[in-house]
Amino acid sequence: MEGPTPISALIHAATMVAAGIFLIARLLPLFISLPLIMSFISLIGTLTLFLGATLALAQRDIKRSLAYSTMSQLGYMMLALGIGSYQAALFHLITHAYSKALLFLGSGSVIHSMEPLVGYSPDKSQNMVLMGGLRKYIPITRTCFLWGTLSLCGIPPLACF
Fold first, then answer.
1. Number of folded domains that form the chain
2. For all residues of the chain together, what is the average pLDDT?
3. Residue at 117 is within a domain
4. Rounded distance between C-alpha atoms, residue 14 and residue 16, angstroms
5. Could you identify which of 71, 76, 106, 148 might form a hypothetical disulfide with 52, taking C-beta atoms 3.0 to 4.6 angstroms apart as the criterion?
6. Contact (Cβ atoms closer than 8 angstroms) between residue 42 and residue 82
7. Chief subcellular site (predicted)?
8. Domain that residue 85 falls in
């Protein structure tokens, strides 16, 4: 689902992606007594996290890369639910929402600053191959983007650890 950057931040960080995880988390007391269902949820989570990470690495479009990264993070949440860790899945859901919103809003700033240089076509302004020099041209956005990325990577002093 594509849209303007603030809408992408809302959709991919908090609302739409949280619904499925939250539904499975609410139904977890029903599933926990069935080991086959829990194993299936873990398998789906594992497949989703590897597929999402692979597709995120293969993208050139910054917003698509972040969207596939969200898919990968949802796989981690499903895996946590599959092994019965309700609190870890919901904690990751909340911290992911904040970190991913920061990344989407940062990507919007990068795209906006790229448009005068490469044109107003999404094919060019969202292409990560053409981006460079963030530290020189937009240092605050670069720092925020770095903090969001490090948070999703699970670096210890940050939220997603």
1. 1
2. 89
3. yes
4. 6
5. 71
6. yes
7. membrane
8. 5-153
Task: Copy the structure tokens of residue 117.
Answer: 């240089």
Give dist(CA 68, CA 120) in Å, integer. 24
Tokens standing for residue 109 = 């700033």
Using 50, 70 and 90 to split pLDDT, how confident is the model at 121?
Answer: confident
Find, among 84, 70, 76, the residue nearest to 13 by Cα.
70
Tokens of 142: 């670069």
How many Å apart are CA 161 and CA 108, to the nearest integer? 25
107: left (phi over 0), alpha (psi -120 to 50) or beta: alpha
Query: Both tokens of residue 149?
Result: 């990325």
| Predicted confidence (pLDDT) at residue 42 exceeds the cutoff of 90 | yes
61 part of a folded domain: yes
Give strand ranges (E) for 39-156.
Answer: none
Whether 158 maps to a domain, the answer reads no
Three-state DSSP at 32 gives: coil
